[in-house]
Every structure is written in C-alpha cells, then in structure tokens.
Design a protein that fits this description.
heterodimer, A: 816 residues, alpha+beta, 4 domains, ten-stranded mixed sheet, six-stranded mixed barrel, 28 helices, 21 strands, elongated, B: 328 residues, mainly beta, AttH-like fold, 13-stranded antiparallel sheet, nine-stranded antiparallel sheet, 1 helix, 25 strands
Chain lengths: 816, 328
C-alpha cells in the first residue's frame, strides 16, 4: 500500500501537502508550547509555596496587616504543635528603584526545623542585627553582593541592611531576601507583628487546625499547605485556560487546512483513485490510503510542531518569564519540564486533527464509481452535492443556547463550547449561503465575469472548501480583534473616570512597606498650590483562605473614585464586580469584613468597575476606615491644583516637603500611557497566537484556491480554444477568487461578531469577573478584510498563470 | 564636629542604619567567690554557658542532657521581642549498646516570648517542652525527644569547684579560662519512655567568654564517677596538630584506639589512657551530629574506666573539634 502511495505520490507537487503539514505543525507547536509554559509556571508557583512551607503541614496567614506576635506564642505552646516558625513577610520597595523585594523575616532557629534547605553553615549570621541574605535572583537583579548595603523604602524613610551573602535558588526562590525576624519587625516598622506562622503538627490535623483557628483573630486563617499550593495557581487559571483554548483554535484551523488540501487532492487524483479501484483495490482500502497519507502528514507536522513548540516555550520563558508577560507570576523563574506523556498526547492530537480533516475526502474517494470517475470532468462530482442546512442551523442554535450558561468551577467552559458551535455552524452553512448569494447576484455582461459566476454557482461545494478556510480564520481574527479592542477601549474609558485629578503621587514603591506618614497628608493639604487632595489607603483582606486576598481601598470621597454600575442603595461599602461574581454579594446585602483584627458589618451600596485588581476589591470611605481602625496612613493621593498653578509648580512644591523626595509623582497622561502599555504587553501573546491562527487560515485559503485552479487546467485549455485570452481567463480567476474571499470574509465577519459577543459577555466576564463594553475596531477589520480579498485575487492570478503555463493544446490532450 | 553630634544627625539624613555594636564580654578572672544559689543560674553577660548532665542508668544505658546558652557577638537596641540577645540550645542523647549508635535530638531557640528562657537566680532553663530545673535538692530534666522520652531527677550532691577554686584555665592567655563547678555522683531516679529507672550522673556548670584559644581546635574531656566514691575530671585543649595545647598540671591523655565514623569519615580516639586509667567506650559509635542546632559534629559517649583488668568507674568522654575546628 505504501509502495502504491509512493508511486502515485511521486508525481505530485509536494508544496501544498507540505503546507498542510505546516498548518498542523503550527497548531501543535502553539498547543504544546503553551502547555509547557503553563506547566512550568504552575509547577514553579506551587513549588515556591512548597519550598517556603518546607515540611510544614499548616500555615497561619494574616494578610498584609498581620496579627500580634502573642498569637504565635499561644499557638507554639499548644501540645499538638511540634514546630512553629514565625514569619513576617513583606514586599518592600528598594529605595531609588521601582522594584519591590520580598523580604522574609524569620527565626532561623525555628525555620531550619521546617526548611532543611536553610541549614547552611553561615546561617547564624542571620542572628546578627540588620543582616540580609539575598536570593540568587535578587542579588543579580539588584547587583548586590556580600558586604554591600541594601536600601529599602519604609514609609518615607530609607532603611539600610547589610548583605551577608546570596542564597542558591534551591534555598530561596524568586526575587527575595531573608532576614532575622527581629530585624524585619523593627526595620520594616512592624514591631510586635507577624503575618505568617508555619506549623508542623502531630495528631489529627483537622482537629489541630480547628483548635488553632479558634485562637486566631478575625481575618487570620490557618490552612493546610496543600490547599495553599492549589490556591497558588488559581489566580492565573482563567488566563492559562484562555491560552490553551487559543492554541486549540490554531490546531483546529490546521485541521481545516488538511481538509481543504485533502479534498482537493482527492479531486485532482480522482482518475488515479479510479484506476486503483479498477486494479482491484477495495473501497475501504482506498479510504485508508487517503487516511494513511493524512495521518503521515499529521505525524510529520506534529513532530515538527513539538520541536517548534519547545523552542517557542523556551524562548518565551527566557524572554518574559512563566507568565508570558501578563504579570501573573512576579519574581518567579520558571524552568521547562518536558514530559514524554504530554508530548505524545499532543502528537496524537495533531494526527487526530489531520485524520479528522481527511475523513470526508477519504469517504468521498471511496464512494465514487470507478467508471465515471475515470472520465474527464468528473472532478466536480464531490462538490455537486449540497450538505443539508439543518446541522449548521442546529450548531448555531446550540451555540446560542450554550452562551447562556454559567461558568464551571470558575471557568467559562460553556462559553468556549458555544464559540466552537458557532464556528462549526457557520462553516457548515457556507455551501448553502454561497449558493444563495451567488444565485442572487445578477449575471453581468462581460464574458469572463459570467464564466466566473457560473463556476461559483455550478460548483458550490468546491467553493465551500475555500470558504470554510476563509470563514474559520476571518471569524476568529475578527472576534479576537473585537474582544481586544473592546477590552482596551473599556480600560481607556475606565482610566478616564479613575484619573480625574491633575496630579497623582504615591510612595515610591507598590510594596507593603511604603506609606505616607499622617503628618505628610496635612502638609500636602496646606500647600497653596493644592486646591483639593484625596488620599487613599489600601490593605489586603482574606474572606476565604482558598482564594486570593481581596484589596481593600479606603479613599477620601470613595463614591467618586470608580465608575459605578447597576443599582445603588444606601450603604457604606462598594464592591468590585469580581467580589460580586465570586462571593455572590449584591447591593443592599450585608458584608462581614475583618479590619485590624476585628470583624465589622457593612452594607453594600453598589458595584464598581475595576480593571486593576482582578481578584476583587472592596471600596470604603477613608473617614469610616479611620474611625474603625485609627489607621491614618496612606499610600497614594490625587491632587486638584489651585487655579493658576502649573503642574510643574505643584511638583516642585511637593518635592520640597520633608519626605517629598521619595515620592513618585505622575500626571494622569503618563499614568494612562503606562497602564495601556502594560495592557498591551499582557495581550502580546494573545496577539501572537491570533497572528498564527490567521496565518494558518491564509495558508488554507491560498492552498485551496490554488489547488482549485490547478484542477481546472483542462477547462482553461478548452476556454483558450474557444478564444478567451490568457488575460481574460486570469481576470475570470481573479473575479472568482475575489468573490469567494469577499463572501467568506463577510460571512466570517458576521460569525466573528457573534463569537466576539460570546467572548466579551461570556468568556471574559466569567474568566476575569469584570464587564467590558463592546467596541468594534472598524478600521482594523477593514484592513483585514481588504488584505484577505487582495490575497485571494493574487493567489488566483498566480495559480492561473501556473495552470496556463503548459499551453492549451497539451492541456486539452491531457484528457485521457 | 564631634562624633556624637554627627550620630545625632544620622536620622535626619533620612537613613536609619544603627551600627550593630560589638558586645564587650566580661573576662573570667581568678579569685571569684561563688555565691549559691545565684551561681546555679545563668550569667547572661558571658559569651557561653552550659549545664551538662551525663550519666549511666543501671540498665547499662548512657545518657546526656545539655543546655547551652550563647550571647551573640553583635547586639542591637532593637526593641523587638524577637531580638536574639540570648540564644539557647539543647542536646539530648541516649547510648544503647543494643542499638549500636546514639539516639539523639536537639532544640534551638532565642530566649523570649516565654517559649525559651533561662533563669538567673537558680538553674532553670527551658526550650519549648524541654527543661532542666533545680528545685530544692533535686534537679529535674524533662526531655520529650523524637525517639525517646526522658523524665529524670538528679540529687544535688555537693558542689566541687574545678581548677583554682572554680577558675578553670583553658589556655595560656590569662583570659582563656572559665568558671566551672561540677556535681559528681548524683543519684538518678525517674523514667525513660515511661519505665522506672535509677542510675548515677554527673553535672557540669561552666561559663566563659574565651573558652577556646585561637590556636586550639577542640578538646578532650572526661568526667568519671569512681566506684570508691571519688570522682575524676580531666581535659586537655588540643592544637591544630592534634597535640596538647593546654592541659591542667598532672593530666595526661593519650589515645589508645581510634574509631572512624562511617557517616562523616571523622576519626575519634574512642579509647584513651587518662593517667593510670584506661577509658573504654560503652560502644564505639557515639558520634553526635548537632549541625542543625549548634552547628558541629562531636563524640560524646559513655565510657568505663579500667585499672588493669578491673572496672573502677563509669563516666563520659567528650571529643570535640575532630570534624572541624570548634567554634563557640
């Protein structure tokens, strides 16, 4: 059988089939690459939790504000607690830079019992005052070595610590520093406070956990380390699933490519196949011959894809870390971990997609009656039948129904299914639609136009194959473009609302240790250049230890700070959409929240839109916050300038204040530009993957159009005999290609718009828990549209020239 | 500008970088008059201090319970309750010939938050649930270790001041010395893993600021309860070549047989000739790996003392600095 394949395959131009293998390769490469990167990132985050926890069973966590150290003493004395290791862990700003450094203050004498990797010979140097050990990554990033001085921003002051050495990545991961707990408490201004305790316990773990929980103040939780490991990967889950789905889309488009290539191959080789049948090959054997070839192509493409995917993942991780630039896993250095099982899985997926694409053509090859197929002009037989309309309609209906369902375990699985149904439905309906449309178009007078249209009308099936490729790729492209543009525009609009002031400033770093001292606030308000100032304090709140912490924003004039959505009732806190989605809160409901170690009850006044804090935020008026906690510290401020004051004057005045030199001052324009830049960077991978999907789609278009034209060589011969010039035939082909591409792109746009609605209102909402407004990037889509049509015309012309290269006499004589 | 004026300016310059201060440890001098019970308690100003109980149970097992106190070299004014002004360590080991090697466990903690503490007016030191206390005429040790559980009481026998009335020279420089007293022949009653036990023990309480001369790498020490009611303590500080750097007058320690640890490759003279006594270990492998707490590996083992062929006493032999030079 393989011998036969080789015999017949030898005569064939290899380019087109190779192209379909390339399509599969790209799909597999993306899928496998994304898988590798995700795996590395998730493993790394979990390992970071594990490495920090060491041999601990339970962990007490108290968020950023922590809890009193007496809690530690009480827990350590419990009879079932074998080891209790107190930790104060904060993100501190590195003075003079934008960086933050995770500073882990621990008692090495206790920690060494849980984290054997910390038992290094010079560990007791940590007991000396004001010493830090830097992780290898931190030492490299900050360019500091043993004996150097590390400067941290604490409040509006700078604290200097001496670097005692660097730790290997196996001892301390990420960009971090280890210091003594006493040094951390004192230098980071947290005397008497801890925010973590690692515990090893004996006896029934759940009983011990409950006994410990009973000792903890509100807002502090004790959790099994495994739960934390699972939770660590949670924040990025929706993002990772989205990437995986994108990769699957690319692979799926690759499958289309195989379908179109194989379908046209089968047509072209109808004679060959008929001859094989006459020579005694059975139907089933003929089908398997076609499938075998597709499988071989699939395997070839998949293997290449695996190699390419690995290279892609290695490059991506090196360039932007395990989060692919999305900022999800800060300070973590991922390493690729290749598992043969998954490589094999992706290999199989590639082959399966390739085989799936070849099933219809294979069946068709076998179905043809040999005697008829041997005759010339029978190539169109396959395309003459029209698929019934109901499967396409049913798929679209299913897609619409699926889009109405809620998330599964926080993931928009039905949303993805809905997109798949809409896409397949649109493709399945294409033959019907193309026939309908081309029948409606009036026949023009020019002969080659007439010919082009008649061809499209007479062979709707064949046109459908090219159309499938165009619709699939253009709809995905349009959907993604609309989704990203909607998101970007929404962020832009949101920035307008949240940045109304003339000037903003904050402590230099975003870490836990930077804050503006209460006295500073008064000095700012008294400046003659400042008409009004709103100050802001943020904190972290844990409502559920299995989920990432929420942000608490206490702001002057809180109500005006964010765009509010939906109904509003009298109340004293506002929640972001994420809090509403994840925790099920609604306006008017009560919300119990721990503040400074005490539980308070609030009434939710309404929902606000927040693109900055994905895990959710709770907003309250700063006056209420101060009344409840007595905490007057702030981290950010927005200033409205007095009439006649320039921004530069105000900046100078701020810098001249005591402590003003450490401020990070920005104009709204700068902040907006920076925010959008971060937005674009986090979508870089999405853009890249979209580009690959489109590329695969364009391959499909040109290969199927090209094949279609080549298959009609004899027809061109006849037309030449009838007196048409090469130019006229070329024009005819160009019109055909153009019309096809136009219809495909138009249908693709319609399907894409529908898919983008699912992306915007279902997938995005369920993945990220925030709403965005639909915004269609008309100009970008028009450019895509025009490019596609142009490319189609160009491909048709080039293929036509190749097809007419042999001269009319030979072309007709080839009819045997 | 005078230095003090300059220091006042430091906070104003925006940087708070309190220089860690080097601690001035008091020097051990001859002629100290010991005052008990105060001197049973801790002497926090000195660099190191230990309470060392070694002994034999009548079932033929050896045991060692030690609490160490160390005052770090650099101090800071840090008001944090975690400020490590005093660091406590504890070792406990059981020598059971049926097992052929030590069972041991260790603790380490900074004093504070009432989780680890050392008392001043009497012997009283604890780290979590490990403790050693002097109550009336009895010491009590509670050591719930990983592999065994010791709950022993020791009769507080009369104090024996070592060296020159409690001033024990350790090197050739005047400050290289310790304050040192022992209580030999203590009766042991209590429980090992819940089973009643009796035996005989030895207590050392020693504190110093310069225990080990810079030229010395470690020491050999022995404390033997002789069957005739007398007791013998001897030590020598070794130099880098393995010879004697310093030994009290009249003490001669000579190696008879060595044993090489299969785990660390360190070779210890487990059998020694101490003047006219031959010391033979209860078992060869009594190596103690305390890298997780005090950061060293040493040999601390139960020994029998022979005069000719007859056993005349039992006690403990300590061999330090054979792995790497000792650091205190």
């Amino acid at each position: 059988m393989l011998g036969l394949l080789r015999l017949f395959g030898a005569r064939r131009p290899p380019g087109r089939l190779l192209l379909s293998a390339v399509g599969i390769a790209l799909g597999v490469a993306l899928g496998y690459g994304v898988h590798l990167v995700n795996r590395a990132a998730v493993r790394d985050v979990a390992a970071a939790v594990r490495s920090v926890a060491g041999e601990a069973d339970l962990e007490v966590r108290g968020g950023r504000s922590g809890f009193a150290e007496e809690v530690y003493a009480r827990i350590a004395r419990l009879p079932d607690v074998a080891v209790a290791s107190p930790v104060l862990e904060l993100d501190a700003g590195v003075a003079g830079t934008e960086r933050t450094l995770r500073v882990i203050g621990l008692d090495i004498l206790r920690a060494a019992q849980l984290q054997p990797q910390l038992v290094m010979e010079d560990r007791y140097e940590l007991l000396a005052p004001d010493k830090v050990f830097l992780s290898a990554a931190a030492a490299e990033a900050l360019k500091l070595g043993k004996g150097d001085v590390l400067r941290l921003a604490v409040g509006q002051k700078t604290v200097e610590l001496q670097v005692a050495g660097a730790l290997s990545a196996s001892s301390l991961r990420g960009v971090a520093a280890l210091t003594d707990i006493a040094t951390a408490q004192w230098r980071l201004d947290r005397l008497g406070e801890l925010n973590r305790i690692d515990l090893r316990v004996t006896g029934n773990r759940e009983d011990v956990r409950e006994a410990i929980q009973a000792l903890l103040p509100p807002g502090v939780h004790v959790t099994a380390v495994e739960t934390l490991e699972e939770a660590s990967a949670y924040p990025s889950r929706a993002y990772r699933v989205n990437l995986n789905v994108l990769a699957m889309v690319a692979l799926f488009t690759g499958g289309f490519l195989v379908f179109s290539a194989q379908a046209l191959e089968v047509t072209r080789r109808r004679g060959e196949h008929a001859l094989l049948r006459v020579l005694g090959l059975k139907r089933a054997e003929l089908s398997s011959l076609v499938l075998l070839e597709a499988g071989f192509l699939g395997a070839l493409g998949s293997l290449a894809g695996l190699v390419l995917g690995y290279a892609f993942a290695a490059a991506a991780v090196r360039a932007s870390g395990g989060d692919l630039g999305a900022g999800m896993f800060r300070g973590i250095s991922a390493e690729l971990d290749v598992s043969l099982a998954f490589a094999f899985l992706y290999l199989l997926a590639g082959i399966a997609v390739s085989l799936g694409g070849a099933v219809l053509p294979a069946l068709d090859a076998a179905r043809a009656a040999p005697a008829r197929a041997l005759k010339a002009g029978d190539e169109q037989a396959m395309f003459r039948r029209l698929a019934p309309a109901w499967p396409g309609l049913a798929l679209i209906a299913a897609g619409m129904a699926l889009s109405q369902l809620g998330p599964v375990a926080g993931l928009p699985l039905f949303g993805y299914a809905s997109i798949g149904c809409l896409l397949l439905g649109a493709v399945a309906l294409m033959p019907r639609i193309s026939q309908l449309v081309f029948d409606l178009v009036p026949l023009p007078r020019t002969p080659h136009f007439v010919l082009a249209l008649s061809q499209l009308r007479a062979a709707p099936g064949q046109a459908a194959i090219s159309l499938a490729a165009i619709v699939a790729s253009f709809s995905l492209m349009a959907a993604m473009a609309i989704m990203v543009a909607s998101f970007r525009q929404s962020v832009d609009d949101w920035l307008d609302v949240v940045l109304p002031a003339d000037l903003y400033f904050r402590t230099t770093q975003a870490g836990d240790t930077g804050y503006l001292e209460p006295g500073f606030e008064g000095r700012v308000r008294e400046l003659p250049q400042v008409e009004r100032a709103d100050f802001l304090r943020t904190a972290r709140i844990v409502l559920d230890p299995a989920r990432p912490a929420l942000s608490l924003i206490a702001r002057d004039r809180a109500e005006k700070a964010f765009p509010m959505i939906g109904e509003r009732v009298p109340g004293n806190v506002w929640i972001s959409e994420a809090v509403a989605d994840v925790y099920g809160y609604r306006a008017g409901q009560k919300l119990e929240m721990p503040l400074g170690g005490k539980n308070f009850s609030f009434v939710i006044s309404g929902l606000f839109r927040d693109y900055a804090r994905q895990h959710g935020a709770i907003l309250m008026d700063r006056a209420d916050y101060i009344a409840l906690t007595g905490d007057r510290r702030t981290s950010d401020a927005a200033l409205w300038l007095a009439p006649g004051t320039t921004v530069a004057q105000a900046m100078d005045a701020l810098r001249a204040l005591p402590g003003g030199g450490q401020l990070d001052i920005g104009e709204p324009g700068e902040i907006r530009a920076l925010s959008l830049q971060i937005f674009d960077r986090s979508f870089a991978v999405t853009y890249a993957m979209e580009a690959v999907a489109v590329l695969v789609g364009l391959f499909g278009l040109s290969s199927s159009l090209g094949a279609m034209v080549l298959a009609r060589r004899r027809e061109f011969g006849v037309l030449r005999h009838l007196g048409l010039t090469r130019r006229q035939i070329g024009a005819m082909l160009a019109v055909e290609g153009g019309l096809l591409a136009f219809l495909g792109a138009a249908a693709g746009f319609a399907a894409g718009a529908a898919i983008s609605l699912v992306l915007v209102y279902v997938v995005n909402r369920q993945s990220f828990n925030w709403s965005i407004e639909l915004h269609v990037p008309w100009s970008l889509l028009s450019i895509f549209f025009a490019t596609l049509v142009l490319l189609a015309v160009l491909t048709a012309l080039l293929s036509g020239r190749e097809a007419m290269g042999m001269g009319p006499v030979r072309a007709v004589r080839e009819d045997w | 500008m005078r230095r003090r004026d300059f220091l006042k300016l430091v906070p104003l310059l925006g940087a708070s970088f309190a220089r860690a201060e080097k601690v001035d440890y008091p020097i051990v001098t001859p002629g100290r008059v010991f005052a008990f019970p105060r001197d049973h308690g801790a002497h926090l100003e000195y660099r190191v201090e230990w309470w060392y109980v070694t002994g034999w149970l009548d079932t033929g097992l050896g045991f060692q319970i030690t609490f160490f106190r160390a005052r770090p070299e650099e101090a800071s004014e840090n008001p944090s309750s975690f400020n490590p002004r005093q660091v406590l360590f504890a070792h406990a080991a059981l020598s059971d010939p049926a097992r052929g090697r030590l069972q041991h466990d260790q603790r380490a903690a900074r004093a504070g938050l009432s989780l680890a503490h050392v008392e001043l007016e009497r012997t009283g030191v604890w780290i979590d649930d490990w403790r050693l206390e002097l109550e009336g005429n009895w010491y009590r040790a509670r050591i719930p270790a990983r592999d065994f559980d010791l709950d022993l009481s020791f009769s507080a026998t009369p104090v024996v001041l070592q060296g020159e009335r409690g001033f024990s020279r350790k090197g050739h420089r005047p400050e290289e010395a310790s304050y040192y007293y022992s209580r030999p022949h203590m009766n042991v009653v209590g429980r090992l893993n819940g089973r009643d036990m009796t035996g005989t023990a030895w207590l050392d309480h020693e504190w110093s600021s310069a225990y080990l001369a810079p030229e010395a790498t470690g020491w050999d020490w022995a404390g033997i309860n002789l069957a005739d009611g007398r007791a013998l303590m001897a030590f020598r500080m070794r130099d880098k070549a393995g010879g004697t750097h310093y030994a009290p007058p009249g003490v001669s320690l000579r190696r008879l047989r060595t044993w090489k640890s299969p785990r660390t490759g360190v070779e210890y003279p487990v059998s020694m000739q101490l003047n006219d006594l031959r010391l033979e270990p209860l078992m060869d492998d009594q190596e103690l790996d305390s890298r997780a707490s005090t950061g060293t590996i040493y040999w601390e083992g139960a020994v029998r003392a022979f005069e000719g062929a007859s056993e005349v006493g039992r006690g403990y032999l300590e061999l330090t600095g054979y792995w790497k030079p000792m650091k205190l």
